[in-house]
Amino acid sequence: MTTLEFSYSLNKLTKSLKPFALKLTRDVDDANDLLQDTMVKAFTNKDKFTDGTNLKAWLYTIMKNTFITNYQRMVRRGTFVDTSDNLHFLNSGAVIIENDAYGDFAMNDITRAIANLESVYKDPFMMHFRGFKYHEIADKLQIPIGTVKNRIHIARKLLKDQLSIYQTRN
């Protein structure tokens, strides 16, 4: 096969290779780069292609191997090996160890905030928190179900206001 015929065959198969590149990379720009790398490798190694064999399968193999090589290179680039004598980089402050102190402070604040609620709001709220249904709370406290819902809503609002320091910002 002459260089011109080989180039023409590569050009014809480009459209059928693009979906495979997209499947591998899951990104349009990366797929285009992979396709271009595949075509460059195929053209530079055209002397290794045997006439009469399946050119499309050869190109798919080149593309798959190129993708794997690029992926492995990317993983190696992201891996850090600490070669210092005393492992200084591994023992640096980049690693965060949590000791649950924050959770303990939060739990203490939540418990205190609930304890500070008036019993009118605290009792229905705690019953609901423990799994009672609205109608069960209403029967137990002998108040209308609408009042139960209202008091639980008010308790939540009061707790939310008192514990606003723990509100996460998006």
UniProtKB/TrEMBL annotation:
Per its UniProt record, what Pfam families does this chain match? Sigma70_r2 (PF04542), Sigma70_r4_2 (PF08281)
Q: Which CDD domains match?
A: Sigma70_r4 (cd06171)
Q: Which domain of life is it from?
A: Bacteria
Instruction: Give any GO molecular function from the UniProt entry.
Output: DNA binding
Q: Which residues form a coiled coil?
A: none
One GO term (biological process): DNA-templated transcription initiation
Domain RNA polymerase sigma factor 70 region 4 type, chain residue ranges per copy:
109-159
Task: Provide the family line.
Answer: Belongs to the sigma-70 factor family. ECF subfamily.
* Protein's UniProt name: RNA polymerase ECF-type sigma factor
Please report the organism this UniProt entry assigns to the protein: Lunatimonas lonarensis
